[in-house]
Amino acid sequence: MKGCIFCQIVAGEIPAAKLYEDDRFIVFRDINPLYRVHLLIVPKRHISSVNEVDDAGNEVLHGIFGVARRMAEKEGVSESGYRLVVNAGKDAGQVVMHVHLHLLAGEPLRPL
Ligand code: DGP
Description:
Radius of gyration: 14 Å
CATH architecture: 2-Layer Sandwich
Structural class: alpha+beta
Oligomer: single chain
Largest sheet: 5 strands, antiparallel
Helix content: 10-25%
Order of helices and strands: HEEEHHEE
Strand content: 15-25%
Bound molecules: 2'-deoxyguanosine-5'-monophosphate
Number of domains: 1
């Protein structure tokens, strides 16, 4: 999607601290980490928000929790714990309109 910063990262047009990539997902560190571990798990296909997730979108997102689990293992936080967050829309503070999962960990997280 033209003008989408995460699509530009997927295309390699903007650098990112990339940790994992397969044909469907890319994982990189958040540029503005809230915790010691703050990863973004991003489907390569553009979907702007959870509001746009239809059957095709479900296919695009299929397996995203498996990627999250493997990234938690890789970062060594499976046992200590982690939080997965998806922001949808203005009130949730979604700023990048390309669906992504935040993986937060590495220290005690503030309660929701
Ligand atoms: P959200 O509020 O859920 O839309 O979070 C978007 C996150 O994306 C936010 O925590 C900051 C991060 N972010 C925005 N632009 C970039 C970028 O260019 N590179 C990286 N690595 N992260 C970015």
